[in-house]
Specification:
With about 775 residues, the chain is of the alpha/beta class. The strands form five sheets. Strands 11, 12, 13, 14, 15, 16, 17 and 18 form an eight-stranded mixed sheet that branches. The protein has a six-stranded parallel sheet with strand order 3-2-6-7-1-8. The protein has a five-stranded antiparallel sheet with strand order 22-21-20-19-23. Strand 16 and strand 17 form a beta hairpin. Helix 9 packs parallel to helix 11. The protein is globular. The protein binds a DNA duplex (15 and 10 nucleotides) through helix 4, helix 5, helix 9 and helix 19.
DNA sequence: CGTAATGAAATTTTT
DNA sequence: TTTCATTACG
């Protein structure tokens, strides 16, 4: 084979890429060039003349899909291969076949918190008392059922299970509520598609034929619903290629089933299996540590990881007195490496089991002036202000969406309180109408005070005004929403810092909308925007480019790699997490989680443990993680750090005379005041990477001279020579076509093309 | 109706 | 300790 596509591949990789027809299982260890294989295989299929539209590649994250897209683009430019996440693929299928499962094509996708609210409202409507079970437990039960392809009517509670009995009662009502609102939760996206394929053989057959080659990444993380979907699409044309690593399955708690990959050979008997065991990422020592650890798992496929990389440094294990010492130790190490010019901030990553552990580390990094970015749990699109504003758009797109209605009906406050809503809900329930419809008829609602009815009517009028804009670019709709609901004004009037931050976040959302508009010209893309918004997550926008230390949970680290990795808090109860200790399966998953963390490291790995840790305000003595005992002792360089408080010291220095700090010295660690740092490279860390990337840098560089339209923003007060003072209520269009709608005090609303208008900002 | 105060709960979270 | 959700007041 002298095809350039195969040039840079190893034999094993080549074997996988060259495989064309029939099922293929690629067992790919960490750092084994899996993405390379998948992308090259796609390119190869294209080269053989397969139309791009006949290839489907499914991933779990947008980031992975994006990565794949850009790499295929390099190998085979301009080919529209469908590469997306499972959920996005399903969303698209459902838009096409919505009516077959009882949805409108403009259905809403509920994220976790939306569906939580929907469940809460369902239970309220039922006047059902779930006893001591929490909403989350019930939600978990429903989610479990959905992941296992059990529809409401088919749900059979385990005999004697109280929770099961509750789920049995609630699940059908919850599902009915979603359908009534024409909404789906994340699990539904998969479940509905699986059901669609099962119940409609002709549709299934057509799609099976349409997607001639299907590839699934991270197959070890598929659940039964995903399995069923993939399976249904590869019956007549069984050209299914899956890649995965059983040892990296860390989402069992989300319904992923290791069975799918372990039994793949059973499900597809004539499967071709390729093992990618050579690692190109880590040093020999790191790899041996990972391999030794994971060998303790029983439920797996044996594999032999090897690398031709250097031996590398020993893996370090540091034991600190307290978490503050631990954090300080890590920060000091990083600082000295950077100051010595050996590394840059972006070379480092710090992983931990739970988000709550990040705080101490952040504090220390900040005090050393080390720039960092945290991939954090609270996502941009989950913030209240974002969800509020999105709520308006959602209701515009789907007037049947009761959850969206409830979210925005009194945000900002318009005097529509609990009792009013109670009556609206009762009315809507008896008339079997969406809440918005009920609101429209507020005059007919029994016992509704006139004042309340007027408030409701005003809201409906607002809604109707906004809905006239539904086909406009998203940025413009958003602008009108912000202005006419007085959401923005309410925040601006507030002087709390939180609210100022909210305004900034809304500004980011506007930017995201603008970028979306530029990306998708034409009319009526509201649903697509909303889909983007809810199927995107912050990890996707983790910025590999910026020069910062990365902080994240072990889960979030999957798929990434860093020259130097720290894994903090190697303690019983954290890793393995206490909630995982009951079942052996869960313990194995925790072990895999650590395996994933370890195998992210390219050159250096440092594990650490604190002897005492403050947890929920309690200082407790810790027990070393059992996993530490499952590492090869000869590969580990263990050291105990025993010095007193406040001493910032490089680790390679010998431990100093500890006499006067012995014993309780660490009880009250003293803190150096976080000192502002002199070096410009070490600017104070910005709080959070926002989910939305700003393009302003490029734009400013481009045409800074022409007092660009970018100086105008949402809500700004402007002056017009003729009409006087006005406020920008919406912006739209891009570049030279940038337009603003301005509400003037005397002259009403007018729209201008900014480049040609005499508008000037005031202030 | 809206805000302040109290109390219970607290992993991980591809979408 | 912190965060939320519900409850009690003004």
């Amino acid at each position: 084979m002298d095809d350039p596509l195969f040039d840079q591949l190893t034999d094993a990789q080549r074997e996988a890429v060259a495989h064309v027809d029939g099922p293929l299982l690629i067992l790919a260890g960490p750092g084994s060039g899996k993405t390379r294989v998948v992308t090259h295989r796609i390119a190869h299929l294209l080269q053989l003349g397969t139309p791009a539209t006949r290839i489907l590649a499914l991933t779990f994250t947008n980031k992975a899909a994006q990565e794949m897209k850009s790499r295929v683009e390099l190998l085979a430019p301009g080919k529209p291969v469908w590469m997306s996440t499972f959920h996005r693929f399903c969303a698209r299928m459902l838009r096409e076949y919505a009516s077959l499962v009882g949805l409108d094509p403009n259905f809403t996708i509920y994220d976790a918190s939306d569906s939580h609210n929907a469940l809460k409202h369902t239970i309220e409507d039922m006047e059902f008392d779930p006893g001591h079970f929490s909403l989350q437990q019930i939600a978990g039960g429903i989610s479990w059922a959905k992941n296992n392809l059990i529809r409401p009517a088919e749900y059979e509670p385990r005999p004697g299970s109280v929770l099961g009995a509750i789920v049995h009662r609630v699940y059908p009502k919850y599902e009915a509520k979603l359908l009534q609102s024409s909404a789906v939760d994340f699990d539904d996206l998969l479940l509905h598609v699986a059901a669609l394929l099962k119940d409609n053989p002709e549709v299934r057959g057509m799609l099976d034929a349409r997607y001639r080659y299907i590839m699934v990444d991270e197959y070890q993380d598929t659940n039964l619903a995903q399995y069923a979907i993939v399976r249904a699409l590869s019956i007549d044309v069984p050209n299914l290629a899956v890649t995965g690593d059983p040892d990296q399955s860390i989402y069992g708690w989300r319904g992923a089933s290791l069975r799918n990959i372990l039994e793949f050979e059973h499900d597809y008997p004539d499967v071709h299996v390729v093992r990618l065991e050579q690692n190109y990422r880590s040093t020999k020592r790191i790899l041996r540590v990972a391999d030794y650890l994971i060998a303790h798992n029983r439920r797996r496929k044996e594999k032999t990881l090897f690398t031709e990389n250097d031996e590398g440094q020993p893996v370090r294990l540091r034991i600190y007195p307290t978490q503050q010492h631990e954090a300080e130790g890590i920060a000091t190490r990083i600082a000295s490496e950077i100051l010595a010019g050996r590394r840059r901030p972006r070379d480092f990553a710090i992983f931990y089991r739970v988000n709550a552990l990040s705080r101490a580390i952040e504090t220390s990094l900040a005090s050393h002036g080390i720039p960092y970015q945290m991939v954090r749990g609270v996502e941009f699109f989950q913030r209240k202000e974002i969800k509020d504003v999105i709520g308006y758009l959602t209701l515009l797109a789907n007037p049947r969406d009761d959850e969206a209605f409830l979210r925005i009906i009194n945000t900002p406050v318009r005097g529509i309180g609990r009792s009013t809503l109670e009556r609206l809900r009762a009315y809507a329930a008896t008339k079997r109408k969406p809440l918005l419809e009920a609101a429209r008829e507020s005059g007919l609602v029994a016992d509704l005070p006139k004042k309340a009815a007027v408030s409701v009517a005003r809201f409906v009028a607002l809604y109707d005004r906004l809905s006239l804009l539904a086909a406009e670019p998203v940025e413009e709709i958003l602008g009108h929403v912000l202005a006419e609901s007085s959401y923005q004004e309410t925040l601006e009037r507030s002087d709390s810092e939180d609210d100022q931050e909210r305004l900034a976040n809304i500004e980011e959302l506007l930017t995201a909308a603008r970028e979306f508009d530029e990306r998708t010209p034409g009319e009526g893309h509201l649903e697509e925007f909303l889909e983007d918004v809810c199927l995107v997550n912050e990890t996707d926008t983790w910025d590999a480019v910026s020069d910062r230390v990365t902080l994240m949970t072990l889960h979030a680290s999957k798929g990434l790699e860093f020259p130097v990795v720290f894994i903090a808090a190697m303690e019983e109860g954290l890793i393995p997490h206490e909630r995982s200790r009951e079942k052996p399966d869960q313990l194995e998953e925790e072990r895999r989680l650590l395996f994933v963390g370890i195998t992210r490291a390219e050159e250096e790995l440092e594990l650490s443990q604190a002897s005492y840790r403050e947890f929920r305000g309690q200082r407790k003595m810790t027990v070393p993680s059992q996993f530490l005992m499952q590492l090869p002792p000869e590969e580990i360089e263990k050291s105990q750090a025993n010095w007193g408080p406040g001493v910032v010291r490089h680790y390679d220095e010998p431990v100093p005379d500890e006499s006067h700090h012995q014993g309780e010295a660490w009880e009250e660690p003293e803190w150096r005041e976080p000192s502002p740092v002199s070096a410009p490279a070490a600017a104070a860390p910005t709080a959070a990477p926002l989910a939305v990337r700003l393009t302003t840098a490029a734009e400013l560089a481009g045409d800074a001279a022409s007092a660009s339209p970018d100086i105008f923003h949402q809500g700004m007060v402007v002056r017009h020579p003729e009409y006087g003072l006005g406020k920008i209520i919406a912006l739209g269009g891009s570049q030279g076509q940038r337009k603003a709608t301005v509400a003037f005090a005397t002259a009403g609303q007018r729209t201008f093309v900014l480049n040609k208008s005499p508008l000037k900002p005031v202030k």
